Amino acid sequence: QIIKKLEQLVEIEKFDYTFFTGDVVNAPKFMNFLNLITKRNFFVVIGNMDYYGGNRDAPIYRNLKISMGSNDNLIIGLTHGHQVSPRGDRSQLELIAIEKSFNILISGHTHKEEIFLQKDILLLNPGSVTGAWSFVASGNPSFITLSIIENTGEINVVLYQYDIRAAKLKDLKSYFVFENNKIRHKY
Questions:
Q1: CA-to-CA distance for 140 and 113, rounded, in angstroms?
Q2: Backbone angles phi, psi at 61, to 5 degrees
Q3: pTM to 2 decimals?
Q4: How far apart are CA 146 and CA 149, in angstroms?
Q5: Which of 147, 144, 158 is nearest to 112 (CA)?
Q6: Cβ within 8 Å of residue 28, ≥6 positions away
Q7: Measured between alpha carbons, how far is 124 from 43 in angstroms, rounded to an integer?
Q8: Are 150 and 179 spatial neighbours (Cβ–Cβ below 8 Å)?
Q9: What are the tens digits of pLDDT across the range 150-174?
Q10: Alpha-carbon span 56 to 73, nearest angstrom
Q11: Region 2-180: CATH code
């Protein structure tokens, strides 16, 4: 179901960018699929499981700078998050974002899907497209899409999650605005 949703989203137009938070673990077909549905750049970072049989040469951090209409640059950062302890600690993720000058930080490791605004920094965790297990995750397959409108600063986030028990695909929408180098809730 979750892969079908990805396919539906790119039927009209491919994603400009794709961010993958690591733990490839010998999945070349899926990585090729993500490359095929991406127009510009496909960003990948190393995850803790990649040391055993995945994408060992990927960096720990990646970033993308987007020029916004307000003459500010929105910087999206990507990391797996295995360097954060305890897992998924928002304060530590926020510190990474501040240190690296990221306005948005996309991380993984916990497999817990999350959209969280902390001190003008948007912290995103897409969860796991396979529904991989962890101590804190739902076990439901999930991913996130971002729509960024450069001239208005609008950032629209959609979390897609396939609820296994209900056998239903859900989407959770969140709206933000980037202005004066800060992100705030739109409403």
A1: 9
A2: -130, 145
A3: 0.93
A4: 10
A5: 144
A6: none
A7: 15
A8: no
A9: 999 999 999 999 999 999 999 999 9
A10: 30
A11: 3.60.21.10
